[in-house]
Every structure is written in structure tokens, then in C-alpha cells.
Amino acid sequence: xxxxxxxxxLAMAATFTVTTVPGAAAEQVAVKFPSAKxxxxxRSAPTKTxxxxxxxxxxxxxxxxxxxxxxxxxxxxxxxxxxxxxxTAEARVAEVEAAGETASLQKVIRPQVADxxxxxxxMVRVGLWSxxxxxxxxxxxxxLKEAGLKVKTDxxxxxGLKTTGPWNVKVVMIDARTFRGSYAASLGTSVAxxxxxxxxxxxxxxxxxxxxxxxxxHTAKELRGEPVGxxxxxxxxxxEAVPGRSAVVxxxxxxxxxxxxxxxxxxxxxxxxxxxxxxxRAAATDELVLYTEEYxxxxxxxxxxxxxxxxxxxxxxxxxxxYAVPKGGRVLHGSGAAADWLAEHxxxxxxxxxxxxxxxLRTGKTIKLTPDLHVVAGGVGLVRNGRTKIxxxxxxxxxxxxxxxxxxxxxxxxxxxxxxILATIDGRKPGITVGASFTEAxxxxxxxxxxxxxxxxxGGSTAMVVGKKVVNQPADGRERAVxxxxxxxxxx
Length: 492
Prior knowledge:
Elements: E1 3-4, E2 17-20, E3 47-54, E4 57-64, E5 71-75, H1 86-98, E6 104-110, E7 119-129, H2 134-146, E8 151-155, E9 167-174, E10 182-186, H3 197-204, E11 208-211, E12 231-233, E13 236-239, E14 246-251, E15 254-268, E16 273-276, E17 278-279, E18 288-292, E19 305-309, E20 315-320, E21 330-334, H4 337-345, E22 352-360, E23 373-377, E24 380-384, E25 387-388, H5 400-403, E26 409-414, E27 420-425, H6 438-448, E28 452-455, E29 464-466, E30 469-470, E31 485-489
Parallel strand pairs: 2-3, 17-18
Antiparallel strand pairs: 1-10, 3-4, 4-9, 5-7, 5-8, 6-7, 9-27, 10-31, 11-29, 11-31, 12-13, 12-23, 14-15, 14-23, 15-16, 15-22, 18-21, 19-20, 19-21, 24-25, 24-28, 26-27, 26-28, 29-30
């Protein structure tokens, strides 16, 4: 099965160390790296090393900041969160003092984003220890737990408030003027299965790759490779869009960021029409869902019905559900009212056409599903037309944890001349690298020259592969299997 990719490079300049990986062209592309100071923390000059990867593709290893943050103990609220209302937090302060410790009430403002207002929250903290004294913080946490309080030891660099870093960033810049390869999306061997970025990159011989968008962790374990949002691989819609969610549309060596809407309709031989609610995902009662051969799992065994279609839309079988999708075929599955529709309109030997429409919401135009088209659903819009525009609520990530806290991030941006920037910010490694908030991620991409940028999946999923090697430091200590990847392919 084919794979996914996105790329957009950038024109930039400064002083860097240059090395060359085996196979890279002797003549290097003149790409510019920002001469301005690193945009996060104390605005210091970063250290950077540039490696020429292939014609038009350069890798930058960027380090900035220093470790000055220490540890505290955070008291959890009855909800299990580490923040709450002022009244709830004040009640927790009293409980801490009853346990013989002194607590501080900390007011925090989760910043306003483009589609969600600022939020005032309160945290309860006990003590402050230097980085080397974490064991002392753990002792206090243990004492409070023994008193019946739920607490955790917190590294302050993760808070999303003021920090000096450090940051460990990897950046791949792909110059639209000289790059002659192409971009593709990959779901690995199937939609349902998760795979590592390096495995997907190796299967397609990619020059470079990063993890793609968010995948569904709230479905059955064997289906958790399913993308949350639009997925198109080689012109085939393999996952429906979440209306309005940010995505990257790839065609050949071009990439653009936009918002999408998809519509899938089943039309029977007798002219009856029914909306198809989803593609290659778990089905709810009364839903009609389309399964393609790329699904890699059985249709739901929920007492519903399956109608098996060949490539031309001919109904070649009507069966109970709970079986694999035949090679070269598709299956329309329905339960409840959807099963009734299939029974009435999809008879064996007849036909059902599946009409698929993908719409670019920025232009209002239909995107043609041709073999050179690939789409990767993003996570959160960060930069639009050169300005910070964080669409956290629209993209389903408007929580304090996602907006304010620092996490590892995988970022993608495009420049005015159509180049692509791929970046990873490692995090969750106290004293080594702190990650970034959404606001910081947007600042970084604007600094790198992106006029459009989005946040892909992050956390333990963040991974960048260059030349068959994982070049960043995944937060889990090893590569995590993910739903999809963005691949940069060599000229064919």
C-alpha cells in the first residue's frame, strides 16, 4: 500500500557547520537559516549544524537555552486534574496545611487562542527544589500521599510558563526551487495497524519522514492506527475528514495547508441515495460505513450486514458482517437503519456507486482524487498567512494540557515560494529539552520562515527519520508505532 508525505522548505542564511551524508550531492543548495536569535526563552543565539541530505534538502540540528528549572509538588484536584477553580484550589491548600506542609496558590492564565478565550485556572504547589534535588521533592510528595492527598512531583519546565529551556530541535528544509522528488502519505501496511515512521520510510525508500496526524486511541486496540481526520493515499480516500480540521494536501512536489470537508454517498442502481458516515473506522448503530481493502481488519461483527462491491461498483456479495474486505473490493457495512437500506437497495448482481467528494474549505473548490494526490490530517492550525492563528478548539485540542503545557511537537510549515519546513521539538526530558506549547510552536515556525504551519501529532509520537535513521530523541525512549507518516521521496 502507498504512503504519506508532506514537505515545504525555506530560504534562509547564517553561519553553520556543514557535513555531508553519503549519497548527497556535491553541490549544495543555498538555503537560508534565520540569522535572528532563537525565538523562545532568553532569545539567545542557537547552536546549529547543517547536514546536506540530498539536492534541495538540508537537515539542521538546533540547540538553544539552558536548564535552570527545578521541581515542585503539585496537588491534584478532586477531578484528577492538576488545576481547578479558585474555590477548589483553596480547599486543597487547607488540606495540605492540615497535613503539616505549606502550600502556595498559583493563578495561571491559559492564553487565548484564535477560537477559544483565555482561561483562568488555579494550581496548588508545595515547595521548590533545584534540579539536582528531585529526591527531596519526591519525599514531600510521599508524605502528602500518606496523608491521603493525591499529588505528583512536577518539573517546572513542563508548565508552559517562563523558562530558559533548553530546546533540542531538528529541522528539515526542502527548497522548492531545487527539490525534484515528491511527497506522499503513508498509513503503512493497513489503516488499522500502527507502525513506526522508520518502517514506513524504509518501505518506500524515503529520503526523510516525520510522523503524521493524530490517530484514534479511543477505539478497539486492533484499530488504533486509524487517522483522526482526512487521509488520502494515492487518490484514495481512506479516512473521512473532520469538517474544518487542518490538513496538508500534497500533489507531486507541492504541499499546501488548508481545511477540508469530505462527503461520501452511496447511490444504488434504483437511484436511492444514502450518506456514508465514515470510511475505515468503527461503525455506530444506524451508520453506513465504507471499508476499503487497505483497512486491514474485519468489518464490525455487530449483527449488521455487509455488501461487497467490486472495483466497478457491482454487488458481488451480500453477507453477515464480521469478515475481511476482499482484495480489490470494497464493503458497505450497515447496522440498524443502514442495514435496512442495504437490504432494500443493494441486491446481489445489482450495483451501488460510491461517490466521494473532497472540498478545500479555504477556496471552496473540489479537490480531484487523482493518483498523485495525498492528504494528511493535521492536528492544530498554528500559523496562517504569516500570523499566529492557533485553532485549538476547532481542531479538538483546546485543553490546558494541549495549549499551555510543553510537550514534544512535530510541526509542518510552508513558505511563500512553496518550500516545506518539517520540524521536531523534543521534550519531556528534564534538563535536556523541554518541548513547546502551541504558542511557542507557532513562534518557532514563524522564526523558521513559515507563512502557514500546523501541529501534527506529538508527545511520544514525535519522530523524524533522515537517511534511515531516527534523528530526534523520542520521548518514550524509542520510536512509537503511529497511525501515519509524511514521506519525502526521491525522484522516480
